[in-house]
Amino acid sequence: MSELIRSLVAWLIFPGFGFLFVCALTVEWIDRKLLARFQGRVGPPWYQPLADWIKLMGKEDILPVGASEWVCAALPIVSLAASLTAVLYIPVAGHTVSAFEGDLIVVLFLLSVPTLAYFLAGWASVGVYSLLGGNRSLLQYLAYEVPFLTALSSPAILSGSWSISQIVEWQMRTIWGALVLPVGFGIGVIGLIGKLKRTPFDIPKAKSEIVAGPLTEFSGRKLALWRLAIGVQTVVGIFLLVNLFLGGSRLSIVLPVAPVFALKSLLMVLLLSTISALYARLRIDQLSDLGWRVLAPLALAQIAVTVWIAP
Amino acid sequence: MPKTVVPIGPQHPLLKEPLSFLLTVEGERVVDSSLRLGYVYRGIERLCQDRNYTQNLHLFERVCGICSYVHTLVYCQGVEALLGLQVPLRAQYLRVLMCELERIHSHLLWLGVLAENMGLTTIFMYAWRERETVLDIMEELSGGRVTHAANVIGGVRLNPKVDQTTFDQIAARLRGMVAQVEEFQDMVLNERTLQARTQGVGLLSAEQIRRYCVVGPTARASGVDVDLRRDAPYAAYDRLNVRVITHQAGDVWARTLVRVQEVLVSMQVCQQVLSEMPAGPLTVKVPRRVPTGEVVSRAEAPRGELIYYLRSDGSDKPARVHIRTPTLPSLATMGEQLRNINTADVSAVLSGVDLCIACADR
Amino acid sequence: MSRFRPFAYLLPQVWRMLWRKPNTVDYPFGPPKLPDYFRGRVVVDAEKCRGCGLCVRDCPAFGLKLERTGKSKFRLIYYPDRCAYCSQCETSCPREAIRLVDEFVPATTDRDTLVEVLVEKEPVQPD
User: Fold this and answer.
1) For the complex shown, is ipTM > 0.90?
2) Contact status of A280 with chain C (Cβ, < 8 Å)
3) Which domains are assigned to chain B?
4) Which of A4, A73, B9, B124 lies 20 to 30 Å from A83, alpha-carbon distance?
């Protein structure tokens, strides 16, 4: 009975749905506020993402003729569910719900599901801009995913374990992953920007070319769930990178766990927002160029070096 | 591969004014395009025949929001030519000042719009911040940020409290802006992602420019050396040195560079005007009725050569006014520029040509 | 270091912007800044107005109307919703009776306020 209650608390409150909902809104607010300050604007107040979400939930929910209603309703839920399941294996402030050897692979697989759901959303909600955006999102997925997965495997090879909790334990014993594997960390960050479709890789949802890409025809509750799914994906991606490369939740001197983890996550958010403010949007063929000609060889080189120095 | 028709329709985040492009797209390549104008047609050329010359001044100011001053300038020059008036020198210098300020604000607006369409929202905010300084200066001089109502037939009408100290303050504020604009020029020359999106896109050769009669910075970026301020000087331009910027590349990047460098040139012209401002009256007395005749008057708007054809029949209302705005030939080249390019380059091409659809539709 | 600048060109500027005040004014929670020569609403000094009608003839938006209400009485009507705030009436008036003031929020919920009678009088006989 207490086992059941503990599981329910883990899934629904911490570190499950409730915690991730609050984190997604907070990260979105920090991102928008930082971007605004970089550009010389004031930025939204703290309740803006929550207000946007509540407003979207109340709006009219229509789809074009020919779009499949149940597929479009199921896709954001699938995307959200995949990210929520992935967080069960990621240590949040040192606290994992469950862990087993190889859970890194499961988490990376689960984090690919939202990207495919995004592409299917473009396909299922029939519309000219959605189809174009869906095609682009698939091309983008092929460009960044291979270097991303390769770079994220390097801490696993270095620490000798494919379980995220074990990798964090190894980093607490020795040194931060980012200091030993800087190239892997860099490619991880670039891959995360590609996965989250932020500038300079927001090609599928390029506002000035294809209106909103695959999500153009979504509105109302479906769009609210999509935005929540994207927010949760951001948070889970950040937690994953913090655990794999930034040492999880301890510094070398013993400090309280939760603030250190929060600080590292905030540093990641700062990094992502700064990169978003700096660059123009790339073209899809330039991204494929970058992904296959620069990132993939660098990631392979990183793996080679890691295998060579692994104990 | 099947062909889809993608509408860059009347409403699109890319466009500031309604315009309809229908692009035939195959995968990620644009194969063909068709253009449709007229969404902002207000019938100004017909409306002006029911209003007298003084009322028409304000009507023509509202043809376009960005180049509103130049429209009134060209109209006033035409009517003054029909009346045989000589505008006082101080008024001519002030007209040059307002024209150059308008060129600065128009080019900064365009830089922001190009950056926004490329995804660089940061430069959009920075450019429009600099534009605010210029708009504040124009508001101090004339009372309006966008519609200045600063021209009258026979001269200039400004804030009565403007004197030499105001001009010195304006000169100081313009000098304060130069650093940021030089940063923009440096950025265009150096920033990799902007260059990746704009270089090699929207190529127009000098021969195509001449065939379509394209004017303005779009022409100058392909090496065609036309600038009315030097070739057919009006207002006080024959006493000022204006450096004409040209580039040979002919793509959107060259157009960006030309426009940013023209902002710097305009600031120098403004400094020269402010330091050499002569004293004197601002207007001359103007009769109500304009004698019969026809006149063609033109000026260099921020987008190129603006032409007005005026015909009067001796009454106090014009018989016919025809406006040729500089965006129209640029729109004619869109068919060539949009053929066989990447879908992602459409935003670069459309931004590069500096569309002002309100001007084109009248 | 400047060899790496093209790869992150905007970084110094963007970082500096964080420590400056924002460029935007918090209107309507903060005051707007109006210049002294601001073209707002039309106001007439009824003492000076003679009913010559030059302002009516020159208004590009047909926003002023002169009505004869009696043998030598007249009324000047102003339509704020048609006004283009160009101040041509102020320039055309030979007696400087009409001017534009600082008000710039003409929105209203009462349609009758969109027709304003500016002057209603009998003109003073000249000596």
Assistant:
1) no
2) no
3) 40-333+344-354 (1.10.645.10)
4) A4
